[in-house]
Amino acid sequence: MKWAKKHRKFDWSRVIFTDESTFYLNKPAGKTWNFPERKKVFRTVKHPAKMHVWGCFSLSGFGEIICFQKNLDAKFMCTIYQKGLLPSAQSLFGDENPDWILQEDNDPKHRSKLAKEWKANNGIRELPWPSMSPDQNPIENVWRLMKININRKKITTVNGLRTALINEWRELPISLAENLVKSMRNRVTSLIDANGDFTLY
Asked: In the chain, what are the domains?
């Protein structure tokens, strides 16, 4: 509630929203109804191959997407800042407009000493973010949309998954980014109406 009230009239057009997500190859089927004498059997892979992604966007559109399979640690997080965040900020806001703010959740890698030092040395301002609040981050809606689209494709290799992810990201319309950023005021209002509890976003 304290965070929501403070950001009720915040200028979200200056924010770069970021997050990481994981996409699986041969993702197991979801829940289904089973009826007597009509049991369904689904073949699944116990440890399916997966691809991690980092992405970002602002009111101006979508920035870079970084695909990787290694475990994300603080050092690699700084590499993502260098290769993903800074080029995205330059593309979305231009060289002459450094007045942007980084949004990311409270993952330990984001809060690590190494990551904090890197951001401080590069003059990056951070947006305070409440814990346990995925419904407030509009990029979660992007991941959901991409997972729906990816699961509809017949992808058989990890490289194919990487290519599909990059293509899906590049096809995301600017209007989607605009609408998601503009939804932030409603998200914050909904959070206040819910007394700081979960919202339907």
From this structure: 2-21+49-193 (3.30.420.10)
CA distance 91 to 61: 9
- 71's tokens: 């475990």
Q: How far is CA 200 from CA 14, 23, 108, 149, 189, in A?
A: 25, 23, 26, 22, 12
- b/e per residue 155-193 (b: at least 16 CB within 10 A): beeeeebbebbeebbeebeeebbbebbeebeebbebbee
Q: How many CB atoms lie within 10 A of CB 79?
A: 14
| Chain segment 167-188, per-residue pLDDT in tens | 999 999 999 999 999 999 999 9
Q: Identify the pLDDT of residue 35.
A: 74
Q: Are the C-beta atoms of 201 and 190 separated by less than 8 Å?
A: yes
Separation of alpha carbons 115 and 113, rounded Å: 6
Query: Is 98's pLDDT higher than 80?
Result: no
Q: How confident is the model at residue 36 (pLDDT cuts 50, 70, 90)?
A: confident
Q: Which residues contact 135 (CB under 8 A, 6 or more apart)?
A: 187, 198, 199, 200, 201
- Tokens for 127? 């947006």
pLDDT band at 46 (very low <50, low <70, confident <90, very high): low
